[in-house]
Specification:
The protein is mainly β and about 325 residues long. About 10% of the residues lie in helices and about 35% in strands. It is globular, with a radius of gyration of 20 Å.
Length: about 325
């Protein structure tokens, strides 16, 4: 395979990305627009109007016989409130500024008169819901898991005060909260002056010169620059989603503290488990992919009132 075939381009998506997305389902009650950031990451923006109900406005587009939403959802709300009712009758309301995992087997509806806006990182769900047609035959139905009770998991601000794992120094704090067997969310707080090669590199396995991990998340405060091995520098700003390939350095831009949330499970676990020499041994360096140019993909997301997004778990 040629070198060119291995070199992903650097893509920076603006708010207009969701106006001209890769795929979209839109009607008078909901709009799901999906943008592909990498081979593994597709971000969907969902806009649900007051009065929207899944069983009323989406169920008719499902394959015949579908009574409950058959997909899992991983994301966060930036505006409005969204209620979810599971098969057992349990109702959970997700509010603006909360991250969530919703298992398959649920109904949902907008609470109140405010439009709901959210962003989701489950690639298959994003793709399927952004290309709905009536009786869509291409909609992928997951295999039911017997004897498993569907749930909604939500992370709260206090969750990151008592996280499952945490790495904290005077320059950075990475706290990880497990929301499900497959989803762990990390909150990162980087102080002004923080530089990966200065404040994190020494915690890596010997010989590590660049960050060996991929990152998928959203910045809610501050600006973060990333320098790739080829010298390319990309700055991620508050309100932007991103995918960063392994092989980069990074630093805080300016005097404002950086706050972000990341959804890459392994990266969240490893970076929240660093403890000097002992942690270095448990940070697994991924296999090197030759002839691949690391990139940063950025997608700007609108946040309600421009305020930082906080997460809570209940």
């Amino acid at each position: 395979m040629t070198e060119a075939a291995h070199q992903p381009k650097v893509s920076v998506a603006t708010p207009g990305s969701f106006e001209s997305p890769d795929t979209r389902t839109k009607n008078e009650f909901f709009d799901v627009a999906a943008v592909k950031l990498s081979d593994k990451v597709t971000v969907a923006k969902l806009v649900l109007k007051p009065g929207w109900v899944w069983s009323k406005h989406v169920k008719p587009l499902m394959p015949a016989g579908t009574e409950w939403c058959p997909k899992s959802h991983t994301g966060f709300l930036v505006q409005g409130s969204l209620a979810n009712k599971m098969k057992d009758g349990t109702v959970t309301t997700i509010k603006a500024g909360e991250a969530y995992v919703i298992d398959p087997g649920h109904d949902g509806w907008v609470v109140g008169d405010q439009e709901v806006i959210g962003y989701e990182f489950d690639a298959q769900t994003a793709k399927d819901y952004s290309r709905l047609t009536k009786d869509n035959k291409s909609f992928e139905l997951p295999t039911p898991v017997p004897d498993v009770k569907p749930t909604v998991s939500i992370a709260s601000p206090s969750s990151f005060e008592s996280p499952d794992t945490r790495t904290k120094t005077d320059m950075f704090n990475v706290s990880a909260v497990k929301l499900s067997d497959k989803v762990t969310v990390a909150k990162l707080v980087l102080k002004p002056g923080w530089v990966w090669s200065k404040h994190v590199k020494h915690l890596m396995p010997a010989g590590t010169e660049w960050c060996p991990k991929s990152h998928t998340g959203i910045l809610v405060q501050g600006s973060l620059a990333n320098k790739m091995k080829d010298g390319t520098v990309t700055t991620i700003k508050a309100g932007e989603a991103y995918v960063i390939d392994p092989g980069h350095d990074g630093w805080v831009v300016g005097d404002q503290e950086v706050i972000g949330y990341e959804f890459d499970v392994q990266t969240a676990k490893f970076y929240s488990s660093l403890e000097c020499d002992e942690a270095c041994k448990c940070l697994n360096t991924p296999n090197t992919v030759s002839d691949v140019k690391p990139t940063v993909s950025v997608d700007k997301l609108s946040t309600a009132a421009g305020s930082p997004v906080e997460l809570r778990r209940i």
